[in-house]
Design a protein that fits this description.
P-loop_NTPase; 5-stranded parallel beta sheet; Dephospho-CoA kinase; alpha/beta; 211 residues; Rossmann fold
């Protein structure tokens, strides 16, 4: 892998859209693509493929997670333990995200989006105008999951769906607070008071897509 300075230069065409689950990252990225003809790279879409490529030395937390039952993952542990040991929240596999970006053509803007884009990992590769984190409030996140019909996509596969869902929501809220602290002025709170169009406007301005 090239050094940080070389990576930053080779990824100068990339805009980084991170944030908490349920914040609308994919929707904003799709709207940016429609408006400005940017390319979109979803890190959610590559999770399974990346997980299959990571061995236990490269991703020990991932392999511990894979060895757990669904109840061990989401019911039997405290949300804080879930937060501290979740592999993607710890940055495992981020080098594969970078490899994917390097493999894309560099002749157009690429918006890469997903919760795996952690501020500490992105910051060395992006200028101040190239990275934004969407920070959903707990109420907005739950409403978004409910609207998608995905509230129980994970929790519903456990022996105690209500407890698993509550654990997931508490964990995700803690993750968003961590992102807010690390992102600083690059964070945008998402609370439902702005429409998708308005939120996209704000992100586009941050990304300097609006001339």
């Amino acid at each position: 892998m090239p050094g940080v300075d070389e990576l930053a230069a080779r990824l100068a065409h990339v805009r980084w859209l991170g944030g908490g689950s349920g914040a609308g990252k994919s929707s904003v990225a799709a709207e940016l693509a429609r408006r400005y003809d940017v390319d979109v790279c979803s890190t959610d879409d590559s999770m399974a493929e990346h997980a299959a490529r990571l061995d236990a030395d490269a991703a020990p937390l991932l392999h511990r997670f894979l060895a757990m039952s669904l109840d061990e993952r989401w019911v039997l542990r405290a949300p804080q333990a879930m937060l501290e040991t979740f592999h993607w929240f710890a940055g495992e596999g981020f080098d594969l995200v970078v490899q994917d970006l390097l493999a894309r053509p560099a002749d157009r803007v690429v918006v890469v989006e997903g919760f795996r884009l952690l501020p500490a990992l992105v910051r060395p590769l992006a200028s101040g105008a190239d990275a934004v984190w969407l920070l959903p409030t707990p109420a907005f996140r739950r409403a978004a999951f409910r609207a998608r019909g995905s509230e129980f996509t994970i929790a519903g596969r456990t022996s105690d769906p209500e407890r698993a869902l509550e654990n997931l929501l508490v964990r995700d809220a803690a993750f968003t607070r961590r992102l807010a602290a690390e992102a600083g002025s690059r964070g945008l709170v998402v609370d439902g008071t702005s429409s998708l169009a308005q939120l996209t406007d704000r992100v586009a301005r941050r990304f300097a897509l609006v001339r």
